[in-house]
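PROTEIN DESIGN WORKSHEET
SECTION A - STRUCTURE
LENGTH: 253
TOKENS:
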């Protein structure tokens, strides 16, 4: 089931807009429109965020993204305390949630969630194309992109994506995604929108740049795929970006 919202109120439309004062107002209106319900949700969750969990702002964006996409199944790779599973369950109550972690299972999971002490690829053959995936598992993200693409997934989200190449040895680089992703968006920390989002304002490194990718279903095939890859290569060569930024996908053209 797909939830239909006005075009100006859908993330899939907002992320395609070029930055401008008017677009900034639309983003702010979007957050303010959905923030009351999200605050109520946080108060109802049986599991608090723990050490290493995503920030409140990232949880907000994850919740809204899942609520709009309404996937039939969700991969939660790196479930840890299970907090992200509860966030996603609130956004898509009918979705089957598959939690993967090599360590101890969470003490509490949503009713529709199942836990596996294995890698998500063991169940890749059971997943439909509308499956949503959250990768917060500290596995090389380029590998995860290739695995997700081979499994036919389109909408995937990564946590712990850093602009500085020295921050992480597993983060995605723009060069890894040429011809493979049709949409790439990093969600903002929202520090100045509401006090609820200030959990990382004193230490910006605690905000880990939740990033949404829409993967190309058939990378490298056909004229359109070649055109997308060529335009992305031009973006990487953006002369306005410094050398380090050009290597990273967040320097969009």
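SECTION B - SEQUENCE
RESIDUE ASSIGNMENT:
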């Amino acid at each position: 089931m797909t939830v239909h919202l006005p075009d100006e109120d859908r993330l899939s439309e907002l992320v395609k807009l070029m930055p401008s004062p008017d677009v900034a107002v639309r983003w702010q209106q979007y957050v303010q429109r959905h923030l009351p319900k999200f605050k109520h949700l946080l108060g109802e969750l049986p599991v608090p965020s723990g050490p290493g969990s995503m920030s409140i702002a990232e949880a907000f964006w994850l919740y809204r993204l899942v609520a709009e996409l309404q996937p039939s199944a969700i991969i939660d790779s790196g479930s840890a305390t299970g907090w992200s599973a509860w966030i996603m369950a609130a956004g898509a109550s009918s979705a089957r949630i598959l939690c993967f972690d090599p360590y101890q299972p969470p003490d509490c999971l949503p009713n529709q969630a199942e836990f596996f002490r294995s890698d998500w690829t063991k169940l890749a053959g059971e997943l439909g194309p509308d499956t949503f995936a959250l990768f917060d598992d500290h596995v090389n993200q380029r590998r995860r992109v290739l695995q997700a693409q081979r499994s036919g997934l389109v909408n995937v989200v990564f946590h712990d994506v850093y602009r500085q190449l020295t921050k992480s040895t597993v983060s995605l680089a723009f060069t890894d995604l040429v011809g493979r992703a049709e949409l790439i968006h990093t969600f903002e920390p929202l520090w100045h929108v509401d006090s609820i989002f200030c959990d990382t304002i004193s230490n910006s490194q605690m905000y880990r740049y939740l990033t949404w990718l829409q993967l190309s279903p058939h990378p490298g095939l056909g004229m359109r795929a070649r055109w997308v890859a060529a335009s992305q290569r031009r973006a990487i060569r953006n002369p306005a970006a410094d050398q380090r930024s050009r290597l990273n996908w967040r320097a969009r053209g």
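SECTION C - NOTES
The mean pLDDT is 80.
The first strand starts at residue 73 and ends at 77.
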